Amino acid sequence: MDNNPRVFISYAHKNQAYEDKVLKLANRLRSEGIDAMIDQYEEAPFEGWPRWMEYQITESEFVLVLCEETYNRKLYSDKKGKGVVWEANIVYQMLYDSAAETNKFIAAFFDDDDQQYIPTPLKPYTYYNLSDERQYERLYWRFRGVTNSKKPPLGELKPLPEKKRKTMFFSSPINLEKWNAAKWRGTVYLWGGDAPAIGIFFANYSAGKEIFKEWKKKYKGMEYADTFLKIDYIVPPFPKACWIYESYDRNYGKGYFLHIGANIDESIRRANDSGIEMQELFLTTVSRYQWMDENNGSGNREQFWDMYNKAGKYYLVPVGLKNPSVGATIDNMQFDFEYAIPMKQITVTAGSKITEENPCKVVLMSPEE
């Protein structure tokens, strides 16, 4: 603003030294173009002090409240009378009556210790320590309506950052339609002549053989199918408080999972070889797993593992029942090593050690999740 802003300084007559500080402040403001007013400039206003003070507070553009203990005590005093008590009552009432005009009343002080005496209605707002020249300058330019930093004009909004596109790479040995038709129901261990075999037991043996026929065609010419297939055992212990320990269907944790899925490392390598960078890759896969009870004295898995270690390889073989209406006895089982898939690697991981990134994490999720 180009005019001379009118400022009334409200303070308490604490002692002569303090009054001299106030007078010096008012004189400086006036010398710099601010129409500052204090009671020391008046000897005896004809309308009387109460009306004079009320007029100054009402008509001034700003009221500078000089905060310190004496002013604060009188501001909250119940006594009625002359001087600062009357003046403080007017200030306090106007602070509450003119909530939208709190910019009119400005708290300031000469000493850091007096910050604690800022009136409650002014505490949320900017205040000034007048012993600091930089803060005095800020107050002066506030009276003038000038900020230290000129607000620049609004520019154009930045465009949304371009989203990095990812390329989906699907890799899975699981044909969902065929696996759903075959209905995997369990696992049996067999001897394949030169190596042991894991028999994948299907309720629908014909559909199960179709899965293996597809694998044989896909992995034709490979010595082992580990490049595409990965077999995992997830064994106890499982995470503490895991639902498996409370599940009848999971034999209360006495058993293990067999997980069949894609070889993730090889899938990533094939994606990279096809020109998809790692940061652009979005790999998706599908897997299947089955729980196997393992009670005390059951050594089938250990026997298989011993034979596997000696042979250095194993087979995956489809298994079914000759007569589905008869129980799962040795004589009633059928399998065909013509469809056997040669494998080299098996991974064994304790359920409690499975990381979030491991696709086998799915076996630890309860059916309700």
Compact summary:
The chain has 369 residues and is α/β, with parallel strands linked by helices. It has helices spanning 16-31, 49-59, 69-75, 84-97, 133-144, 176-182, 205-218, 264-273, 300-311; strands at residues 6-10, 35-37, 62-66, 105-109, 127-129, 167-170, 184-191, 196-202, 229-235, 255-262, 281-284, 288-293, 314-321, 333-335, 341-343, 347-350.
Helix-strand string? EHEHEHHEEHEHEEHEEHEEHEEEE
> How is the largest sheet built, in terms of strand order?
2-1-3-4-5
How large is the share of residues in beta strands?
Answer: 15-25%
- Whole-number mean pLDDT: 86
Number of helical elements: 9
Distance between the termini: 67 Å
Please give the radius of gyration in angstroms.
43 Å
The number of distinct β-strands equals 16
Helix content: 25-40%
Q: Overall 3D geometry?
A: rod-shaped
Contiguous uncertain segments of 5+ residues: none
The biggest beta sheet is recorded as: 5 strands, parallel
The secondary-structure class comes to alpha/beta
Describe the protein's architecture and organization.
By secondary structure, the protein is an alpha/beta fold. 28% of the residues lie in helices and 22% in strands. It has helices at 16-31, 49-59, 69-75, 84-97, 133-144, 176-182, 205-218, 264-273, 300-311, and strands at 6-10, 35-37, 62-66, 105-109, 127-129, 167-170, 184-191, 196-202, 229-235, 255-262, 281-284, 288-293, 314-321, 333-335, 341-343, 347-350. The strands form four sheets. It has a five-stranded parallel beta sheet with strand order 2-1-3-4-5, with helices on both faces. Strands 7, 8, 13, 14 and 15 form a five-stranded mixed beta sheet that branches. A four-stranded mixed beta sheet has the order 12-10-9-16. The longest helix is centred in the first third of the chain and has 16 residues, at 16-31. The two termini are 67 Å apart.
